[in-house]
Amino acid sequence: MTLRVASCSAVLLLLALSVDAAYNVNMKLASSRVALTSDALEVAVVVTPKQPKLKQLTVETLVDTSGTAVLSGLTLKGDGSRFVTKLTGDNKLQAGMYKLKVSAVDEESKESAYEVLQLKVTTPVEVASAKANGKTLKLGDKLSGQNYNAAAEDTLKMEVKLQ
């Protein structure tokens, strides 16, 4: 009787393993920083090793730093190696930090994998003017090895313009 129960448990365990088999792929963002632009925001995910049969990935959820879901069910189309989507209109992200749960499913074997990736949407800026200890810096000037001491009233002042 004990042997029969053990063999049934082993069969159930094997069935559970075959249904939940993991898809052996790694996913990462092509760039974890994406600059905010006036038009579409492009998000790209790279899959390794290349999976020629894989034609799409799914962003199951995209949440902001407060944990609020911003987008879900977004499809990224690709060639088995690089998968891209463009976010426009209501789907366009604001500057900030986000987490994406990206999944891949092999349609034939039904194996799946997912990764939680971090994305930073940045605002490009241009330095309009800069002064270090009263000296105006010109475009191309570099500061290196400068120590600033508040007691000595050292200052670094910079004005930036959003692009």
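the 2nd protein, sequnce then structure:
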Amino acid sequence: MKAGAKRNLKILAYGLGAVLLTLYFMFLTFPFEVVQDRLIAPVAGQIRLPIQVKEIRSTPLLWIRLSDVRLLQGPGAEAQTLLKIDEAKIRPSLLALALGRVSFRVKADLCGGRLSAKLGQRKSERTVKLSWKGLRLESLGPMVGLKEAKLAGVISGSLNLAMQGQNWATGRGNLSARLTEGSSRNLSVAGFPTPELKDIRGSFELRVEQKKAFLDSLALESPSLQLFAEGTADLLPRLSSSRLDLKGRLKLGEDLAQTYQPMVSGLLRNRDDQGFYTFSLKGTPANPKFVP
């Protein structure tokens, strides 16, 4: 290599090193209070629920530590904790910042399991990649509309989503999840109480493409019940108002059939040659309507 080329490479290396060291120093001296305004507040606004963080601090290994993170429901002092994370870690990518992009990695111990995420922004496009493993349903706080239900199980899955601005409904991506060791008590669906279920296994595959969601598959299986569904939904910024168009198949096990067969036969009149009742689900997630 010629002497001039070596000199240019050294200048480039020194310059890049100086930029990274400057960014590292800026990270260590950064006023992390702005994380609340720039990162946490927009997320809270998107999900329409307040997020409370007790403490935000940095570490020399480029991690931002958030302690006692709570997702709340309800006004002021009466707010209930839906979700609590003892500690979460966020790490920005210095190289991405040097190139004019925003990129964060997030790790957290959540509901007895592990959550990892990568959040990025380039121009007007935002990307979200999530994966979770071993999350326990019974560790969640009371869910909206399910306050009396007793749910248990282990959930693992992933989410990949790219969107313009903060409107996730206009994005594209996919969501998948798996349930094992599931059980439910005191659960009502569309106003109908469901029996106690045990040993539930489930899977879920969903695609999102420009204001349209495609439920490729939903399966819930237990010794007492089998449920399968697929279909589409017209997405709105407020998920609970999105319009559903789903088709499902339901089959009762022998133990439930003795008690619930007459009621189910009266509600869902169509039955295929495999013994599954078929139905459609219209309306919205907040107000679903069964169509026999």
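The helical segments are 3-28, 34-47, 94-98, 254-267. Residues 124-292 form one domain.
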